[in-house]
Amino acid sequence: MGFRLGTKQLFKISDRLRFGIGFFFGSYNYTDSSAIKDTTVEVEVYDDNDGNTNDPDDYVSTTWSSETWMTRVTGSGTTLTFPVGVEFNVTQPFVFRLGAVHEVNKYDYTTVENLIQFEPERTHNVYGDGSEDWTIDDPGQEPVGTEENYKVNEPSTDYYYGAGWQVTDNLQIDFMGFYDLTDMTDWSISATLEF
Questions:
Q1: In a 10 Å sphere around its CB, with 0-12 CB exposed, 13-18 middle and 19+ buried, how is residue 90 labelled?
Q2: pTM for this structure?
Q3: For all residues of the chain together, what is the average pLDDT?
Q4: How many independent structural domains does the chain possess?
């Protein structure tokens, strides 16, 4: 949950030059919970190969244990965004645009892990003669949960380039998204038709 507010201003410096600047502030809160159950099962089969299927020396031993951990992440963040741009009328009807967006992202997160279910290691032995037994290992002290808090301050700046072509008084074609001139995957084209 969050919000974003801001403003932008456009200035006409001359007939061939326009300048734009803006400021945006965003804030949000974040909460996420997940439970993970970790179950370990080991099966051991022993046969002494003496040909006797009812031999008490033969056995199948199954050992298992499990833990369930609840992880809860809560946090908040703010984003300050400063876009600036310049548009040049290179020659009528072509324009060239340069822009930059500087962002400062601040995050403050807390991650809490708690053990919500714990089963100590148990072993079930079934012997060749049909007898069986159970053992439960001394679990000792249950694992203890953790709490971690971390803060991040990440500034970044992206640069953008664009071009426009005023085909007629009613139609303008814009080429956008080529902030990386060697990668065409984000390039886009826009057509604006005015009546």
A1: exposed
A2: 0.60
A3: 88
A4: 1
